[in-house]
Write a structure and sequence with these properties.
The protein is α/β, with parallel strands linked by helices. It has nine helices and five strands, in the order βααβαβααβααβαα. α3 runs parallel beside α5 and α5 packs across α7. The model has no long low-confidence stretch (mean pLDDT about 95).
Amino acid sequence: MHHLLALGDSYTIGEAVAPDQRWVEQWADLIQTEGHAIARPVHVIAQTGWTTDELAQAITLAQPLGAWDLATLLIGVNNQYHGRDVDSFDREFNALLDTAMAAVADRPERVQVLSIPDWGQTPFGAACGRDLIQVSAEIDAYNQAITQRCSARSIALLDVTVLTRRFSADPRMHAEDGLHPSAAMYRLWAEALICTGKFGRL
């Protein structure tokens, strides 16, 4: 039986979708079809609105985290939304990578990071009145910091940003709140993760 730990914010907790339609639960479903027994539900430490420092605080309160076979991390959109600088995000994100690594006994092949989706490419974004070109540029800057940290540690990174942009005009890919991904979008993320073969080394 394999155990997954998912760390993040609204995208990981699955705001606006049923709990079993979160990307991490859909991913676990697909993993099980490939013959790996997954403890369910996946253990999630995430909440809508969390920034990197708030996630870190929640992890501290949840100690000890215990031992896990795989840890995922998707965080940063709320830092960008609130106008925080990339340098502070980079430091806090790197510390969260330390936490994820420790949860899987310092095995980088057992950590999976996802990039920050582009919330500007949603119905909410279109109506929010912000400069969406700037929003996308800032998200790109955050994701560049994530890419560099993951590359330096040989940690897998899945680019879901490109999916949120590619399917931005498809209403089926947005939840009813117009901001968060739908179950169908999360399915694309789960399928993309399966293609990485992450569990092939378990």
